[in-house]
Amino acid sequence: MTSFIPVNEPLLNGNEKRYLEQCIDTGWISSEGPFVKRLEEEFAARVGRKHAVAVANGSVALDLAVAALGIGPGDEVILPSFTIISCASAIVRAGATPVAVDCDPKHWNMNVAQVAQRITPRTKAVMAVHIYGLCVDMEALVALCKPKGIAIIEDAAEAHGQAVRGKPCGSFGDISTFSFYPNKHITTGEGGMVMVDDDALAKRCQSLRNLCFQPEKRFVHEELGWNFRMSNLQAAVGCAQLERLDEFTRIKQAMGKRYDSLLAGLDAIERPLPAVAWADNIYWVYGVVLKDHVPFDATAAMQKLGKLGVGTRPFFWPMHEQPVFKKMGLFLGESLPVSERLARRGFYLPSGMALTQAQAERVVEALHEVLA
Ligand SMILES: *Cc1c(COP(=O)(O)O)cnc(C)c1O
Questions:
Q1: Using CA positions, which residue lies closest to atom 5 of ligand 1?
Q2: Sign of CA dihedral 323, 130, 346, 9
Q3: Which of 186, 198, 277, 327 is 20 to 30 A from 216 via CA?
Q4: Domains of the chain (ranges plus CATH)?
Q5: 3-class secondary structure for 206-273?
Q6: Index of the ligand 1 atom closest to the CA of residue 57
Q7: How many other CB atoms are there within 10 angstroms of residue 43's CB atom?
Q8: Ligand 1 pocket, Cβ-based, cut-off 6 angstroms
Q9: Could you give phi then psi for residue 51, rounded to 5 degrees?
């Protein structure tokens, strides 16, 4: 049998090794090293933001965003149910109430019309999350939230290099966040970024990231923060990766096109949309959804594919169906049918930067076999 095709494999063959050697040679390995500042400056320029604050991962970036906006008990935050746990956990840990909306059946991003219906006098923020390579209709969301004074937290963890009608994802939120986990468009191993324009808000994020140490009285604390710092080693890898973001985006888009043409004859699955009115797909991952006539679900399909040497991942499990939140009395009686269906029928194919044409062809052969 030929080798297993992993669901993700990053490309690390640019300047990563050279920059890491510089860290070792100079002894700068902590967050005080020069690559952290450099990554912040270069990423801020790339996304068109005034400030970037490097953090330990994309999940804590969301914790920081919620804390920096002063969101807490009594506040409601609207978010898509179809997302990663990090989004809801940041809201819940802050003591605020998460309010879930459904997503669009075709582009899988949050339904902005439903956001409008769920706004109450207690709505403090909307957390928008770009999903799987397409993105939220941010212009509509900003037009909805801005006049009402509702803040936007934009989770762009899957949207490096993506843009809404030419304006970069990550430039819309009052606070926007990114992840640099190895399956994202660019990686630092573990890492994340918080983006803002407001100077005071940037200071607050920097302070919360660094235990709220005070410049004058270092070990006297007026507030509780976290150690969410990124190391110079991680940032060194990030600087090398950022140099190749355009190339990586082209690689992913070529992968999307390749799967699209290879899968064109397979009637049993719904494929991702190549574009929406406001953006082209950058294919963070290539997701597929089993049509309703297929007599088994995504779990069974993924098991069969695994036996044929193809790695896959299930789609997100909706926030309103999470046992942990049910136990807390959250989302009780909520029904969001699109998210529920995607969770049960959807999964994604090997989508890493290193995926070859031959591997993609083998993946599609395996899919045909499973769905024959
Ligand atoms: C990956 C991801 C995160 C979390 O990032 P980590 O760096 O893995 O903590 C948050 N939100 C979304 C939408 C993601 O895809």
A1: 58
A2: negative
A3: 198
A4: 16-242 (3.40.640.10), 245-371 (3.90.1150.10)
A5: HHHHECCCCCCCCCCCCCCCCECCCCHHHHHHHHHHHCCHHHHHHHHHHHHHHHHHHCCCCCCEECCC
A6: 7
A7: 24
A8: 57-59, 83-84, 86, 129, 155, 157-158, 179, 181, 192
A9: -130, 140
What's the CA-to-centroid distance between 167 and ligand 1, angstroms?
Answer: 21
Measured in Å, how far apart are the chain's first and last C-alpha atoms?
Answer: 21
Q: For residue 329, what pLDDT is reported?
A: 97
Cα separation, 238 vs 242, whole angstroms: 6
Nearest-angstrom CA–CA distance, 269 and 291: 5
Question: Using the 8-state DSSP alphabet, how is residue 50 labeled?
Answer: S
DSSP string for 333-371: T---HHHHHHHHHEEEE---TT--HHHHHHHHHHHHHHH
pLDDT category of residue 107 using cuts at 50, 70 and 90? very high
- Please give the Cα distance from 4 to 271 (Å, whole number): 23
In this structure, which residue's CA is closest to atom 6 in ligand 1? Answer: 58
pLDDT on residue 41? 98
Confidence band for 258, pLDDT divided at 50, 70 and 90? very high
pLDDT single digits (tens) 264-313? 989 999 999 999 999 999 999 999 999 999 999 999 999 999 999 999 99
What proportion of the chain, given as a percentage, has pLDDT over 70? 99
- Between the CA of 158 and the centroid of ligand 1 the distance, in Å, is 7
Find tokens 């949050």 and name the residue: 110
On whether the CB atoms of residues 113 and 93 are closer than 8 A, the answer is no
Structure tokens at 239: 């600087």
Contact, 155 vs 210, CB < 8 A?
Answer: no
Question: What's the whole-number average pLDDT of the chain?
Answer: 97
Tokens 């269906």 correspond to what residue?
A: 341
Tens of pLDDT, residues 3-50: 899 999 899 999 999 999 999 999 999 999 999 999 999 999 999 999
How far is it, in rounded angstroms, from Cα 326 to Cα 247? 43
Strand partners of residue 153: 127, 175
Contact 101, 114 (CB under 8 A): yes
| Helix or strand run (H / E) with residue 314 | strand 313-314
